[in-house]
Amino acid sequence: MNDAGIIEWAVSPGLVAYEPAAAAMEARAAAIAEGRARELVWLLEHPPLYTAGVSAKESDLLEPARLPIFRTGRGGQFTYHGPGQRVVYLMLDLRTRGRDVKRYIGDLERWLIAALAGFGVEGLIRPDRVGVWVARTAMTDDKIAAIGVRVRRWVTFHGIALNVAPDLSHYDGIVPCGVTAHGVTSLAALGVNASMADVDAALKQAFEAVFGAVAAAPAPLR
Which among 121, 139, 197, 199 is placed 20 to 30 Å from 85, CA to CA? Predict the structure, then answer.
């Protein structure tokens, strides 16, 4: 089943609960590692919640009662997920992609920057901060996309979260990714009136340019 060159692309409509999504993602990654399934890129939205990566500090959780909190095995610290944010879980086999995690992160960054460029937004990479940013002033940036990944048996899972038009006020309950000197933004906050379908199309086109062609497939959860 793990045919070289075939990457499945799936979109879940509506909101998908976090815990079953995480379980489905880990199960698919294990199946890919065992050669029982094809690589998968899964696009979805979650209900409002916070997730804590392996480097999360309790002091960065400013309002513990505000939203549900889920501990994850991904890299990074606290972040927010919710409606209006395109979460993309990528289950890719790095055994066929050079076994290079640093290169994979760079490919994720290039992918996001290319997708944002389609909306006239200049995405930026900062060597001291993870994710994709947009310049707010000469000295400060706002994060528009978070990156948090995990690799097991050379298969990736977790992925990216791109702010399309979420409720940015929910970021007030955490220190996003442990960064206090910079803020968060979204396409909507930047004046870009893009639907989720518009964003998905841009993500797909940019993904294929970086990672290769995809084929539509059913989502693990709907």
Answer: 139
Query: 85: which 2 tokens?
Result: 């944010």
177: annotated active-site residue: yes
- Cα angle 29-35-40, degrees, rounded to a multiple of 5: 40
pLDDT given at position 2: 46
Residues 53, 132, 197, CA angle at the centre, nearest 5°?
Answer: 95
- What integer best gives the mean pLDDT of the chain? 95
* Among 177, 179, 199, 202, the one annotated catalytic: 177
Give whole-number Cα distances, 131 to 3, 51, 99, 214, in Å: 30, 16, 21, 24
Three-state secondary-structure class, residue 142: strand
CA distance 217 to 87: 17
Number of helices (H) and strands (E) in the chain: give both, helices first: 3, 12
d(CA 71, CA 53): 6
What one-character-per-residue DSSP string does 12-65 give? EEEE--HHHHHHHHHHHHHHHHTTSS-EEEEEEE--SEEEE-TT--GGGBS-TT
**Structure tokens of 92?**
């890719």
Tokens describing residue 119? 């909306």
